[in-house]
Each structure stands twice: as structure tokens, then as C-alpha cells.
Amino acid sequence: MELFDLTGKVAVVTGSSKGIGRAIAERLAEHGAKVTISSRKAGPCEETAAAINAKNPGAAIAVPANISSKADLQRLMDETRAAFGRIDILVCNAASNPYYGPMAGISDEAFRKILDNNIISNHWMVQMVAPEMKERHDGVIIIISSVGGLRGNAVIGAYNISKAADFQLARNLAHELSPSNIRVNCIAPGLVKTDFARALWDTPEAEKRSSSGTPLRRLGEPDDIAGAAVFLASRAGAWMTGQAIVVDGGATI
Q1: Side-chain half-sphere of 64: how many Cα atoms within 13 Å?
Q2: Which domain holds residue 62?
């Protein structure tokens, strides 16, 4: 357990009231970290924090925040520091995709929303936590990207563009921050059984169709991604920075 021990660490996980973000927060807490649960709605955040605290008393707080609001994100960081004293781990998980269709039909507003929520909000959050991490000469930043950033697609092109940009954001930040022992990496999930992708797996036929091209012959579960996050957040991943870990059941091979 020593390689994966997060005792004394504090993590902020966005989009963590359900799905991949919730699984990451739960597993970080299990390994000893304090975690801040954040998504847009207060109720689901409080429910998730309560569930974590039931297993790990005092491990979680709920701070609702909209990633499109810089003020909300600053409040998220401020309230985490007020409760736990510091931020050691930032997991940028929340994202949005308001448009499904060819690039020819996307409005400027929808395109900007995708870029703002999936790239610029991550940049804001890093700016908010990097100074204290530099002072301590220690920190972890994990950006949840997607295998979509590695491939073209005729109907989620703008989303994939944003996820490809996240890879480069991590590489650039790794150059800037790694000399201060701040590690910045991406996780690129394949198709995971979450509400975000429910339309692709919510019937037996759809799930079979979606998993047929995956060598492991199954879709991902949120815990499949949480394991990679624990690795990157802990001493086990201490010599990895600027990388993208693809967790997709083999789909991209």
C-alpha cells in the first residue's frame, strides 16, 4: 500500500458527483486523501460526500461549482483550502459536449462552450493551484481527456478537438511545472458506462455493438479509470509527467 498511500494529501475532483469523477474521488479517499466533491448541483455533491464520509469519516466536503465560471472555480479552491488547509492533487474531470453532429452544423456558441469548458477551465484551475504546489515543491495535476482526442469523428468533432488540446495542455504544463516537482498527466478513457455516454450502451444491443470492437470485449467501468488516477496521484506514478494513459480495453490498438 505504501506506493499508493495518499494519507495527508488533499484532492479537488471536478465533475465528481457521479460517474468517473465520483469513482476517482471515492478511490482517492480510500487511499487516505481528503477530497472535495464538486459539480454544478449541490444535492448530488452532498450525497456523494456523505457516502464517502460514511466509509472514511471526515474525508470529503461538497463544494458545488460550474466549470464555466472562473469565480465559481476560485471559490472551489478557496473553500477546499479553508476546510483542509491545502491542495495537493487537482483532477480536472468535468467536461461538456452540447453538440452532436457534423462540424458544418455547429454554432459558434456551442463550439466556444466546448472549448471554454473542456480546455480553458482546466487552464484556470491549474493557475489557481500551481503557486502553492510550487512553494511546497510537490503537486499532481490529472486531466481527464478521451481517446476521442486521438481519432477523428464525424459527429463529436468539436469535443474531440477539445480533448486533443488537453493532451497538449498537459505536455506544455509538464515542461513548465515539472522542475517544481509538479507532475501533469492525462488519462484518456475509452467508452465508459456513465450517464455522459448512456446513449451508446443503455440497451443490451447497444452495449454489444459498442463493445464489439474492443479487444477485452467489454465497456469500461468508472473504477477502471479511478485506478489510473490513484496511480498518477501517488508515489507509484512519481516519475511520470506530460503523458497520456489510454484506458480503453484495447480499442485504439
Answers
A1: 8
A2: 2-246
